[in-house]
Amino acid sequence: MTIHTTHPFASEEPDRDPARRLRGRLGGVVTLWTAGDAQGRAGLTVSSVMVAGGEPGRVLGLLDPDSDLAEVLQRTRAAVVHLLRWEHRDLADAFAGVAPAPGGPFRTGVFVADTHGPRLESATTWARVEIESLVEVGWSLLVTATITAAEIGDEDDPLMHRRGRYRRVGGPGGPAAD
Q: The pTM is what?
């Protein structure tokens, strides 16, 4: 066995897509979207997310249109959106498909059955959402979902993603650390 110092999934060539490079510099909190039922479940790590206020409030996310999650959302029209914390970074990699997950990514955490899909038990902030629309935008699937219920917990250690790496946010107002 050979041990390499580089990331096993890193590309040798720099990304030349300006939209992808710009999005990577925006950064954001990492979320986990899960959906499914007895007929099948899927999940995906997503950091391209916005929340729009209103009655009802909405969550907008950019997903891979070829993902298993996109297929399950078409069928179930519901999901659970979790905000991940620093402790969830290995789980985030498993659901992103960049780390091995023997037995599947749902084995990387404790999930409980919920009306809108599997819910990560250790997530302190999550929302049940119902899919309003799925529209292809560029190379992504824009999911617009209404928030039907939410649990808002303490988020003192959010998992941030910027420029292809997870970042840890220091204390209140503190600097980001790697």
A: 0.85
